[in-house]
Amino acid sequence: MKPFVLLATRPEDDVALEEYHAVRRFGGLQESQLEHVRLEKGPVPPLELDRYSGIIVGGSPFNSSDPAEEKTATQRRAEEWISALLDEVVARDFPFLGACYGVGTLGTHQGAVVDRTRSEEVGPITVTVTAEGATDPLLSQLPGEFTAYVGHKEGTRSLPANAVLLASGTVCEVQMYRIKENLYATQFHPELDPQGLINRVIAYKDLGYFRPGDTQTVIDRVKDGPEVGQPKKILAAFVDRYAV
Predict the structure, then answer these.
(1) What are the boundaries of the signal sequence (predicted)?
(2) What is the pLDDT of residue 102?
């Protein structure tokens, strides 16, 4: 089969590698079946889409809604690269799954309003599948409600005009949507299990997601929270549907 590609923008090597292994594990992919492209490392050649089964965009400490003058040169370069890629991805309706930072990049490209009015504290939330989501191939095997992990400074306040809402939440209503037939975005993290989230809490405790002094409280919220096992099925369904 053609490999999938994970586009990453996490500067921390340990966090970036853990994300890669989680996507690979939950997607049921061998190492040779998931390439890892780290956009924060430097200029990257354009992707040749015909080489891949699909694209997955992971999370990031970057925020799509940050004012341009506050973005680093690295962030601006990565976003310009992703925007150019999305021109072709959207035109071709090429299989795409953007999680966390991916929902901001796809949404911004397609005219969504992404801002800090829908920020979420770190931890588990209840996600509700819409009627359209219940019949979508990526969600059809999940229950009507499931628990997922979030933790974001920004969220989608209004959908792109051409998007179909597939799953909703409370603080950030837009939790998952589809554009055309093959372009997906999730606010929640399908690649996270409890230990994965705890590791990110520790890695990002000084980045403003919560007060550093509340780190143990956030960790306890994850440890003592409900089981989170359904979202990873979305990665498996994406791979099963688009592997060629």
Answers:
(1) none
(2) 87
Helix/strand/coil for 234: helix
Counted residue by residue, the chain has a size of: 244
Check if the beta carbon of residue 107 is closer than 8 Å to that of residue 152: no
Mean pLDDT across the stretch 6-15?
Answer: 94
C-alpha distances in Å from residue 53, one per residue of 43, 89, 150: 23, 12, 27
CA dist 180 and 13 (Å) reads 34
Q: Which two tokens stand for residue 90?
A: 């959207």
User: ∠169-152-174 over CA atoms, to 5°?
Assistant: 30
Cα→Cα distances 233→32, 92, 113, 239, Å: 21, 25, 28, 10
pLDDT the model gives residue 61: 87
Please name the residue that has the structure tokens 């956030």. 218
Check: pTM over 0.85? Answer yes or no.
Answer: yes
How many Å separate Cα 37 from the centre of its chain? 15
Q: Are 34 and 5 in contact (CB under 8 A)?
A: yes
Nearest CA to 140 out of 243, 58, 241 is that of 241
- Intra-chain end-to-end CA distance of the chain, in Å: 5
Q: What is the mean pLDDT of the chain?
A: 95
